[in-house]
Design goal:
The structure is a single chain. The protein is α/β, with parallel strands linked by helices. The protein has helices spanning 8-18, 42-56, 74-88, 90-103, 108-115, 118-124, 137-148, 182-190, 212-221, 243-253, 266-274, 287-293, 304-311, 325-335, 348-357, 359-370, 380-390, 407-424, 429-432, 435-444; strands at 31-36, 60-65, 129-134, 156-159, 176-179, 196-198, 230-234, 257-261, 280-281, 296-299, 316-319, 340-342. It has a 6-stranded parallel beta sheet, with helices on both faces. The chain has a 6-stranded parallel beta sheet with strand order 9-8-7-10-11-12, with helices on both faces. Helix 14 links the parallel strand 11 and strand 12. Residues 1-28 and 399-464 have low confidence and may be disordered.
Amino acid sequence: MPYLGSSVRLRALATAALRPEPVPPTAGAERVAIVSASIGAGHDGAAAELDRRLAARGLTVDRFDLLDLLPARIGRLVRDGYHRMLVQAPWAYQRIYRSTERAGGGGPLARALLRTAEQRMLGALRPGTGAVVSTYPGASRVLGGLRRDGRLTVPVLTYLTDFSVHPLWVADGVDVHLAAHAVPAAQARAAGARDVRVCGPVVNPRFRPGTEPERAAARTRFGLPANAPLALLVAGSWGVGPVRQVAMELRDCGAAVPVVVCGRNTALAERLRADGIEHAFGWVDDMPALLHAADVLVQNAGGLSSLEAFAAGLPVASYRCIPGHGLTNAAALEEAGAAVWIREPARLKAALHDLIDGPPGLRQRTAGLGLFAAEPDGGPAAEIARVHAAGPPPPPPRTPVRRRPTGRRLVASTAAAGAVWASAVGTGIGTAYDGPDVLHAIGHGLDLEDPTPDRAPGTEGHHS
């Protein structure tokens, strides 16, 4: 069976692909701040690569985690609650995702929670910061609010890490949105973003098409079959979704040997090995090598692993996607021609054969590598550097600010609300409430003297 990844055509494709408060604008400022969130690995992964690229351009970069800026350890509660919801009550996440998608933003609880980070965000930014970049929707909302209110006078950019753009990604007040492809760019504009620029994905340069010797060496290193087709199954850093079911289906369909990466979910890796899935790994430090060993990537969320596979010249299939962003990313990747979305188990075997050893696979490789065929002065980091060098833009249109609870009352109320929210999406969500009751509690939160949610698309800033 020919291996398209080592063919002359793929080598040609690879060659083509290689071608204080407020923060004052400071003349000649050479400092950029990046705000992410440690929810999964995708947002932090994009932030780390932007950091590396901006530093290579001579800029000093400060990194911040939005969850660290929330009071009373609420950030940890939010992260843990979101994780548990994906694992134990994915139906709830799907309903919340869809309801906020229709509404164009979050409820009063989310807005009040993020307001508590505004002052801390301003205090964290170093003097001389000339631009601030967000790789997480909540951070975009905090920064956009500060820009809109005139408390932050330097440009704010959002790098859209997802291929699909939930309205929560588009925050009022953000100056520039950066997209990896025309599909997410169009979705951002539809959600109300004004200045949207397509500048390609952000992936570490270690992810590139491998040579035949590299492929053989990687298979030996990881103890993989030397000649059998391999389907690399990934499920993010948390290993969420029906991973065991998909691994069994991959094995039983006979199209490829499953190789499963479970991230930090070591218990899942142990269960898979007990199930007879021989090649099940926890956290893998050298993912570029494992991608070189594989013939196709099977994923369920459409996040950073998909972009890394594209950069490595590997075809990608979306299958049994997790709710919410997993489904919308699968649709957006398919619309962009970058990945195949396998909707029916009966199609799994044929689709994998096509991707591993057929014309659809070559088309996928071409489309994936094409995402990185930017001009020499292109890419998100280059665009951020240009915005930074241009200096402070005109202030965005001011919007009326509703009366807010202040001081201790806001912090105390938000801390209580955060604890309630995190608990609601925790272990007992599936049994303690009826579906409509818990969705009402999570989706709308507490009033906190803010009874009228924003409904205009694009006025709020979303997920991991």
